[in-house]
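Hi V.,

Quick status before I head out on leave. The structure for the redesign project is tokenized and pasted below; the design run finished overnight.
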């Protein structure tokens, strides 16, 4: 039996979930809360296998409640169940640490499967938003924390040089574009390779594209005046 806490400010919504998450289907609703703040106390009290969390609620919304719940107990398993399928809501829920995201108009069987998956330690994405998440994963730059740290070590001029390297310019062409000497560019390039831990120019180009330093259609940096 999977123990569940329902968090939603609408009693009608909680009543609907109670009919879906009943004991004959393997669920036991052991607690309810009408906002995120009340949910923190309820979850700490009953320690359920899964929390079904709405997003827009008074006092504390579902994103903040998810973040606070996981800070208090990282083993918490939270399925966000919302009417809103916008990318911003989805991103906020996942960044807060939710294990799953499901829309309220999903079939009852899908909501049951989603709660089971989250309680078992797996993830769940509603099929209605899954395609958008995959497209974003395929097109967004990689956000490796170590790479972000290394990028942050570049000076603004070194970043300009890296952008121009990413566009295929030679040192001489970069020097002309930025109106500086080629020797200066060579120095910048050497420092860029060291700071980014890349072995050569080709690796720097790959790094620039992988991490969003260069994007198609974006104009090159202009010389300082």
């Amino acid at each position: 039996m999977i123990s569940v806490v329902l968090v939603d400010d609408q009693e009608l919504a909680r009543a609907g979930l109670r009919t879906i998450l009943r004991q004959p289907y393997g669920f036991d609703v052991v607690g309810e809360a009408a906002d995120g703040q009340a949910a923190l106390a309820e979850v700490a009290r009953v320690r359920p296998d899964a929390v079904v969390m709405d997003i827009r609620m008074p006092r504390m919304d579902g994103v903040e409640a998810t973040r606070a719940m996981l800070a208090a107990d990282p083993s918490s398993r939270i399925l966000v169940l919302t009417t809103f399928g916008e990318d911003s809501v989805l991103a906020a829920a996942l960044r807060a640490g939710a294990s799953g995201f499901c829309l309220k108009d999903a079939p009852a069987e899908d909501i049951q499967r989603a709660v089971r998956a989250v309680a078992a330690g797996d993830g769940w994405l509603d099929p209605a938003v899954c395609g958008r998440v995959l497209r974003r994963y395929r097109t967004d730059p990689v956000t490796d924390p170590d790479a972000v740290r290394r990028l942050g070590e570049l000076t603004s001029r070194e970043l300009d040089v890296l952008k121009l390297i990413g566009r295929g310019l030679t040192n001489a062409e970069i020097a002309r574009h930025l109106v500086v000497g080629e020797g200066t560019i060579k120095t910048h390039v050497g420092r860029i390779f060291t700071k980014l831990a890349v072995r050569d120019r080709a690796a720097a180009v790959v790094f620039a594209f992988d991490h969003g330093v260069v994007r198609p259609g974006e104009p090159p940096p202009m010389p300082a005046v």
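Above is the designed sequence. The domain at 145-211 is CATH 1.10.10.10 (Arc Repressor Mutant, subunit A).

G. will cover questions while I'm gone.

Best,
W.
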